[in-house]
Specification:
This protein is of the alpha/beta class. It has 14 helices and 14 strands. Helix 13 links the parallel strand 13 (about 395-400) and strand 14.
């Protein structure tokens, strides 16, 4: 199994201490030189991720939930609110349907629109108790699900790296966006007959290791915090909600199938899964085929918008149709007309590239080159050299953990963020990117 970011950090620290204990002055000098060489190389890099301006109170609660589970305080909050809202929406739908069986899926979309506004589980549950129809506006935004169980409205955080190669929160700005009108489709019928047992049981499949491991901590924390809040308010169907955690790995492993089999064997009523769309697509037929809701706080591939999912796949993250439009407007709005894109060769990378290209073109810019790379590759010299040859005034990297290696190659080629405008996306914009870049990984 690949190591988590925390484990990698501990390993690096351990090696540094061993070198110091052995009097390894050359190693220490080398490490110091490497740190100096990378210091500030990411400064100015911008990127988008679905994000609202989270309150300090919520961020503290989220981090406290992660610490309570035996971890260090959170460094990133990406998709923590979306994970929290996914749990609350499922819980409210089960309460409204009066069952944890498959029929609660028929209530999910309605929980987010068309009724009496409410901001938390307690107030929404009170509306249901009176025979009313709640319209949950959650921590992550207004939600407003379409008939295919995904939000038609979203808030994006435009993040920026500072001189320490970490995100500078003082420079974060927020932009609201809506999906095209055509995205608001009719209700997708729910297919299946799975019965409930009266106890809402939720499983998670979040990344504990692999290329999106930095997204795991806030997602797990959001899951834990939501269950704690719901149970403090009396639970669902008169009983506490039960949570079971599992690892998704990434698209290079089969971890997600193993975790899915375990959770289905434990008869969960929903599986909350993230962060990679490619990972979700590996198991969507298995989960929905079992009559279980598959709900993601972080999947953004537009492939999932029209997937034949029996009306059982939902997400609180907006489709990349929206992210592409937002990021494209930002790139061109910053004054860049000739843009290069380098992207992963998967449903996420290819799909977001399509929508980003369209947005840049419609805003008056031009994509001068698109380089699609193998996500398993270790070197990106050829792709970066081809991009450099086109002399773009901005480069967009659509990737995951490997974005660190791409950036290192760009810096060596003289087209890093301090030389040319560089933009990222939700798959790579996090402090973990800066940590990995500094460590040369």
């Amino acid at each position: 199994m690949r190591k988590t970011w925390a484990q990698l950090g501990a390993a690096v620290l351990g090696l540094a201490l061993v070198g110091a204990a052995c009097g390894g002055s050359e190693d220490k000098a080398s490490e110091t030189g490497a740190a100096a060489a990378t210091a500030g190389q990411l400064v100015g890099m911008k990127g988008t991720t679905p994000l609202v301006k989270l309150s300090d109170d919520f961020k503290k609660k989220l981090s406290d939930a992660w610490v309570k589970a035996g971890n260090q305080p959170l460094k990133d909050y990406n998709y923590g609110a979306e994970a929290y809202d996914a749990v609350v929406v499922i819980a409210l739908a089960a309460e409204k349907a009066k069952t944890d069986g498959i029929d609660y899926a028929k209530e999910i979309n309605g929980i987010t629109r068309g009724g009496e506004k409410c901001k938390d589980f307690t107030s929404c549950k009170a509306i249901i108790a009176k025979g009313g129809d709640p319209d949950y506006d959650g921590i992550s935004g207004p939600l407003e699900f379409s008939g295919n169980c995904e939000p038609t409205k979203a808030s994006f955080g435009v993040l920026q790296f500072g001189k320490d190669n970490r995100l500078d929160d003082t420079k974060t700005v927020y932009k609201e966006a809506s999906a095209p009108a055509a995205a608001d489709v009719p209700q997708v019928p729910v297919e299946g007959t799975r019965a409930g047992d009266g106890t809402l049981k939720l499983g998670t499949i979040f990344p504990q290791a692999g290329s999106l491991a930095f997204l795991g901590p806030p997602e797990f924390a959001g899951f834990d915090l939501a269950i704690a809040d719901i149970n403090a308010a009396g639970g669902v169907l008169g009983k506490p909600v039960v949570g079971i955690k599992g690892d998704s790995g990434d698209a290079t492993t089969d971890t997600v199938n193993q975790t899915t089999d375990r959770l289905l064997a434990e008869k969960v009523d929903a599986i909350i899964i993230g962060a990679s769309s490619g990972v979700s697509l590996k198991v969507i037929d298995k989960i929905t085929g079992a009559g279980v809701v598959q709900f993601s706080p972080a999947n953004t591939s537009k492939t999932l918008s029209t997937y034949k999912d029996k009306g059982l796949y939902c997400r609180t993250a907006p489709s990349d149709v929206v992210q592409g439009a937002v990021l494209g407007a930002i790139v061109v709005g910053d004054g860049h007309k000739n843009v290069a894109i380098i992207n992963r060769n998967d449903s996420y990378g290819v799909g977001l590239t399509e929508d980003l290209t369209k947005a840049i073109t419609e805003a008056g810019g031009k994509v001068v080159i698109t380089k699609t790379y193998d996500e398993k590759a270790d070197k990106f010299n050829a792709e970066v050299n081809e991009i450099k040859a086109q002399k773009p005034d901005a480069v967009v990297i659509i990737g995951f953990e490997e974005s660190s290696k791409i950036l290192s190659t760009m810096v060596e080629a003289g087209v890093g963020p301090t030389k040319i405008a560089v933009y990222g996306v939700d798959g790579n914009m996090g402090n973990a990117l800066g940590e990995s870049f500094d460590a040369g990984k």
